[in-house]
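dumping the sequnces here before i forget
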Amino acid sequence: LIVARSIVTLTTDFGLSDHYVGVMKGVILNTNPEVDLIDICHEVRPYDLLDGAFAIAHAYRYFPPRTIHMVIVDPGVGSARRPLLVSADNHYFIAPDNGVLSLVYARAEDLTVRHITSSHYFLEPVSQTFHGRDIFAPCAGWLSRHVEPEKFGDPIADFIRFTAPQPKKVNDRLLKGVVLRVDRYGSLMTNLTPADVPELFTENPPAFKIIVGKSEVTRIKGNYSQGAPGEVFAILGSSGYLEISANRGSAAQTLAVGKGAEVGVVLT
Amino acid sequence: LIVARSIVTLTTDFGLSDHYVGVMKGVILNTNPEVDLIDICHEVRPYDLLDGAFAIAHAYRYFPPRTIHMVIVDPGVGSARRPLLVSADNHYFIAPDNGVLSLVYARAEDLTVRHITSSHYFLEPVSQTFHGRDIFAPCAGWLSRHVEPEKFGDPIADFIRFTAPQPKKVNDRLLKGVVLRVDRYGSLMTNLTPADVPELFTENPPAFKIIVGKSEVTRIKGNYSQGAPGEVFAILGSSGYLEISANRGSAAQTLAVGKGAEVGVVLT
Amino acid sequence: LIVARSIVTLTTDFGLSDHYVGVMKGVILNTNPEVDLIDICHEVRPYDLLDGAFAIAHAYRYFPPRTIHMVIVDPGVGSARRPLLVSADNHYFIAPDNGVLSLVYARAEDLTVRHITSSHYFLEPVSQTFHGRDIFAPCAGWLSRHVEPEKFGDPIADFIRFTAPQPKKVNDRLLKGVVLRVDRYGSLMTNLTPADVPELFTENPPAFKIIVGKSEVTRIKGNYSQGAPGEVFAILGSSGYLEISANRGSAAQTLAVGKGAEVGVVLT
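..and the predicted 3d for all of it:
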């Protein structure tokens, strides 16, 4: 009988220019050398809980059941904020209780949130500045060795959760959203989904304009290469959100627009 | 009997600031949890097929036989461009049919290029914007589970291939090349090889000058530390090309020259 | 009997924009496909031996015993500088003999430094520009297959080591240190430890000022979130050094100070 190795993913705002991610991996491997460590993203914007919430929410479902996801965006490290072990739809999450798992909670049908209190799993002495190393990584390691979740602490109901920015219907013709992220290609991911503006996603969409920064976008495309070179257009992005993109170019640069910019959709 | 785990490498222009690479890894692991995932490079210049072609061509031969190499630089995602499964000299490649494997084709002695048509391996629904996740990753996963290549689709002969920029012999004394890449150290990798200018690589090379930007390089060194601090010189780089480098410094910065710059070699 | 896979870590100044790290991993896997490859850091400042020395010294102890650590910051590649295989406190290190392991040597209680001379382990032909690929990676691969250290070469005593910058006691009230690193969050890691200024780390520290750049820092905090937004303060960092940090902000940016800046601690 060969049992598959446990998988632990890592999502952090640590960046890759320091040794911090490597140290956490060392701690996990020191607890369980037979684990597969997979980076989801370490370039979450520093201290940005919503950015971290999006990264993990868009990624975790693609992993096998029982994957353990460490999500360490932790500006409150060393304070009273609690460490959590979350079971959600047959995935595990280890993260600080600061809302960084909010979008996981929002999608989960089966959810248990535990306050990790079993300090005998921690790396001693526990620092006040790097719980990723001293608390979260060793807990991930022990969980990957099939220690049962209930051994880490009791369920809680008052965990912190926030809501992602929601589109606002100003009137029958105007919907206002926001740019949530800009990706490497300069695509602007908005908080608008097909459910918010179903008209845009019909086969023959009505005339519309999307106002972003000082520009108007009036075309929607099915794929990037349908755009003329340099043309900026709307498209359904791979995470299920309306995106403003360009073919072989950066919409963010062309429109001089970034994260947090307002996006107005006008059906004309 | 312990069979070695399959290896899947990833070469993309996705960068590391988003969750895209992590998502692809999740999909592969969800198909085959017993696979080793190795990043070759995710910083291929966005949409730059030649840059991607160089990254994979310079790396794949160092991996064990039967390694599966995913190469996703895919500006035509969602269009009619075909997904490919390529067998070349006992390595496998999974990539879009846009020429990004051209330099693999050029070196392969034993080559079979298949058009992947077996859509039952794909992740449903297939998006029009992220075939790395929906088509290429699951196919890599199934291939890593030893599904036979012929199960994915039939061989084709009209796959797209391009030629890398070739040096031009202007006259007996002047050869013109180009800077193909600038690496992290600021070394300028040209498209010139010892076969193009064998004189430079003899034990006592004749007098020469290499004109790059507004500067002339007149020395060739065997290793970096032979250069004086700040001196810019020619050297045989580790990928087999003539490079313009500096000892503990950046030739690109010193010469104010980048990718695409012309390189003239004059034997005086 | 299932034997755990060997672990090889990588710490380099190669960056992630090229294929160099991927190539080294291919070479290791080609020697031993059953190895786990873990990145510690590839963003060591180019050619900066002290920066590399800190990265590996702060990380290696967290890994399991018998981990093999490749540390490739190698401006002297191709010259007469020797390749080393080091055994230190039940960890292995493979690195050039240029001092990049100095801080490992400084901490090791049990130390053997070998000059790797067994060239039959090397990848032929050995280039003069990429020993990471041609010498260090294959040696790491063979060592991970449990080839005994003594097979690689004989112990030496004249290996190169340097001392990290030490704090200077100017007088009873003034201690001078230096900023060794700036991390992703903009925290300034100094070379001062609690042993150098024990007063700061008592429960009721005396009045003090830390002079960095043109600013004075007069508070010490137990964790980041104790600081007011924008406030710059001192804190005991996770690697055991005094750091100058900010809560959800960058001390480096706020103080306009970087690596190498002088840090004066004045007890008033």
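The CA atoms of residues 73 and 210 of chain A lie 33 Å apart.
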